Amino acid sequence: MGRIWIAIILGFLASAGAFAAEVQDVRLWRAPDHTRVVFDLSAPAAHKLMVLSNPRRIVLDVANTALKSNLDDLQLAGTPVQRVRSGVREGNDLRVVFEIGAEVDPRSFSLAANAQAGDRLVLDLYDKRVGSEAVSVRKSASQSAKRDIVIAIDAGHGGEDPGAIGPRRLREKDVVLAIANDLKALLEADAGFKPTLIRTGDYYISLKGRRELARERQADLFVSIHADAFPKKQANGASVYALSTSGATSTAARLLAQRENAADLVGGVKLSDKDDVLAGVLADLSMTSTLDTSISLGDRVLGNIDSVARLHKKNVEQAGFAVLKSPDIPSILVETGFISNPKEAQKLASRSYQKKMAAAIHRGIRDWFVAHPPSGTLLAWQRQQGGQEYVIARGDTLSGIAHRFSVSLADLKSYNSLSDSRIMVGQKLTIPRT
Q: Which residue has the higher pLDDT, 372 or 347?
């Protein structure tokens, strides 16, 4: 009898330990061109993907794995997924079936655990487009010599990757998306500018994908917005960064670039999505004026941020940020403050401060392009005509505008029939040609 009980106990223990991994959570994200499903695993697990038709189904078999999460909680509205169900096959394998209502191109891959996230299995369901779709923001030959200047605004992180986490679970991805939206609204109000958001919602885009979207939209500038973090809570201040083709300008810049470049590991990007060879790109950068423009423009932005926030560094720093490695687009990265600093986190969480930061970045971008308009743009045409239109923004003064455009205050007043120096936000001025 004793032997029978021993056999029963051993059998129970064997079955209890039969699963090598568990699915601890399942999350779903919707992006403009695909739906992402992420399985959080307790350990690595092999998987297979199958596509079935009549009806359309995506089948994911995960070896030796148990489901410990509720699939009914997934928010499927606005996605091609109509229903998700699960079962057990061949004793210990998990089968997850996605019933699909539209044609998709499925891709799956595993992500190994890292410092910020555990083992994951990622399923991307890419939408299949019918015909070609026009990009919403592009330079157009039909605009002749009066095209808009295209500004690509990149809110860092998103989706799987929350970015840095501050007090009260304040997430970097939420803060920077709010600032990006504010910046977009300000640029939309300016004649001659056409802003476009790289990330419009809470989803992740690879670092390479962000650069490709900016190039696809033929951007004149790529500006990536972030909120810094550091182990020491005392660290504070805003910064502006440009790419470095050699070493970083400081240890802090190098560490920050390493942290930002690791975002793909958290956001979920398979290895094949990363750049294979960067040497050619860096060689091209060294032979163009792109990097010089980035530093010059970044300096103008930094100078304007100085009016609303303490600066971490008084000059534009440089490091090997992967998101800035576009050979043909001036690119800067703005760290709006340290979300790890309780006082700065409190500011970054407030809408008033977010709007002030967006306004400062806006002034820097606008001021630089007004002074250096690309050929063929409306701003360049206005400059050639002997005068250009300028819309007063928050924080502007008449003397500051006169200094910015290298005209005398008296001439600016006279040209616009102003009896004194009082101006209002939204008021339009004509800048006389010097």
A: 347
Q: What is the pLDDT of residue 176?
A: 97
Measured distance CA(362)–CA(377) in Å, rounded: 18
How would residue 186 be classed by pLDDT, with cut points 50, 70 and 90? very high
Residue with tokens 């592009």: 138
- CATH number (3.10.350.10, 3.40.50.720, 3.40.50.12280, 1.10.565.10) of 386-432 reads 3.10.350.10
The predicted pLDDT at position 342 comes to: 95
Tell me the average pLDDT of the chain.
85
Q: Where are the domains of the chain?
A: 18-127, 142-371, 386-432
Q: What percent of the chain has pLDDT over 70?
A: 84
pTM, full prediction:
0.78
pLDDT band with cut points at 50, 70 and 90 for residue 289: low
Quickly state the pLDDT bin for 9 (edges 50, 70, 90): very low
CATH code, 18-127: 2.60.40.3500
Q: Domain 142-371: what homologous superfamily? A: Zn-dependent exopeptidases (3.40.630.40)
Q: Which pLDDT does position 134 carry in this prediction?
A: 45
253: number of CA atoms within 13 Å, CB side? 22
pLDDT, residue 124, reads 93
Q: Residue by residue, what is the 3-state secondary structure of the chain?
A: CHHHHHHHHHHHHHHHCCCCEEEEEEEEEECCCEEEEEEEECCCCCEEEEEECCCCEEEEEECCEEECCCHHHCCCCCCCEEEEEEEEECCCEEEEEEEECCCEEEEEEEECCCCCCCCEEEEEEEECCCCCCCCCCCCCHHHCCCECEEEEEEECCECCECCCECHHHCEHHHHHHHHHHHHHHHHHCCCCEEEEECCCCCCCCCHHHHHHHHHHCCCCEEEEEEEECCCCCCCCCEEEEEECCCCCCCHHHHHHHHHHHCHHHHHCCCHHHCCCCCHHHHHHHHCCCHHHHHHHHHHHHHHHHCCCCCECCCCCEEECCHHHCCCCCCEEEEEEEECCCHHHHHHHHCHHHHHHHHHHHHHHHHHHHHHCCCCCEHHHHHHHCCEEEEECCCCCCHHHHHHHCCCCHHHHHHHCCCCCCCCCCCCEEEEECC
